[in-house]
Amino acid sequence: MNQTYVTRRAPAASFVRGRNTVRHTKRSLGSISQIVIVSMLTLVFGLIYVAEGTKATSFDYEISSVESEITEMTAKKEDLAVEKARLNSVAAAKNSTVAAAMEDATVTGYATE
After folding, report:
1. pLDDT per residue as tens digits for the range 61-105
2. Threshold 0.90, pTM exceeds
3. Angle at 56 between CA 54 and CA 62, to 5 degrees
């Protein structure tokens, strides 16, 4: 049984049912090509995973730096509140009637033996 392949350029009378088909061989990837493709996909997905992981880590560093700034600002605020209270008490003492009735302190001398 000889198979003949008819080109499409032949006259129309030569086209017979089932004789103008073309047979193709099935092509598939070799084992080396499959290994290369799988390793490249693994590499790409690994790089994506690492990139997302470092993004999360950088956000953690930003959050911790902002939290340390908040802690420093809170400590400064408390120090300023203490300084304000001290200055208010000094000003209140100068303006009080009791302080106005007091005499200024003068050094009269030093004790000697």
Report:
1. 888 889 999 999 999 999 999 999 999 888 888 788 777 777 777
2. no
3. 105
Distance CA 21, CA 24 (A): 10
Rounded CA separation 21/71 (Å)? 81
What span, in angstroms and rounded, lies between the C-alpha atoms of 54 and 49? 9
Rounded distance between C-alpha atoms, residue 40 and residue 53, angstroms: 20
Q: Pick the closest to residue 54 from 43, 46, 66, 44 (CA basis).
A: 46
CA 88, distance to chain mean position in Å, is 46
